[in-house]
Amino acid sequence: YYSSTYASGNDASDAPLRFIIIRHGERVDVMFGAGWTQRAFDTSGRYHAFDPNMPPSLPHRTNWLDYDVDTPLTAKGLSQSWNVGSVLHRYNLPVTACYSSPAFRSIQTADRILEGMGRKGHVALRLELGLFECTSWYARSPINFMPDSELINGGYNIDTRYRSQMSDLRLLENEYQYYDRSKETMKKIIKLHRKTGGTVLLVAHAPSLEVLTRHLMNGQPRPERLAELAGKVDFCSMTVVERESSSKPWQFRYSLDEQANQGIWQQQLQLQHSNSAVIAPKNQSSTAIVSTAAPAPAPAPATPSIYQPPVTFTNYLAKPANSAQQFYLYPQQEAFPPYFVL
């Protein structure tokens, strides 16, 4: 199903290419419930915020009830997204292109990230159908995406010349088909940027961190576990994957800092484990364990083979030194993309 290196070509002139893949920010329906539109809109479709965490305004939509399923960000979600852009700007990761799922919450997140970077007027949003979530998850509530005209009238910088790499979405696709669609979408986007390289922002959904990168790391799809894996991904969580050229393998980044990348992990990823081991993330395809005391044996295989000690990652680069964040790290067979929240 997947190649060993997933190179899209072997041209020596290929430029270094990096993808920042991020989940959208906090969404209104999660915070205020599925019936929030009945409280936020009057019978004529006029919007009013009924809580300080509601967005201050929303673009006009022909059918305002479409916001029920195609939900916007909360005020906190808008702030989260802007802050992500600000941090990426401070660490000199200028986005050269931006692709967004057509879901409005993803579009808002992408827009605010670019605004936080000072790039909103320079990088137009490319709306890509292939970045949307698994369609079977919307079987009971089909989603109607906002047209470009309404988004532009709402102040969003949309690239109207861009044509989605996926012209339509299969209704009621299963999770395995979602993996496959995501793989094909990623291949096409990589091809568009193979010569020019740069930093490409992909703003989508919680499972996107898994389905857009799984094949790049030679992994097999895990459709039966996708919902569980996606449930671990918080709002505005991101993963960063990059390669030097198409002849080189893809690698995950574990921090925003080039020089301290390895050192921070070896010093700060402390496994709460009896043999005091530290993960040394050379490459996600070959997770290594380095002992800080006596040499530690590899964990005994389990069924399923998942090693789940909690890991504390103190990100000095994006948060105060005393601020820690939790996630889980798995061995090669079950590896989930390393992700962090700024």
TrEMBL record:
Pfam families: His_Phos_1. It comes from the Eukaryota. CDD domains: HP_PGM_like. InterPro entries: His_Pase_superF_clade-1, His_PPase_superfam, Phosphatase_SH3-domain. This is Uncharacterized protein. It comes from Adineta ricciae.
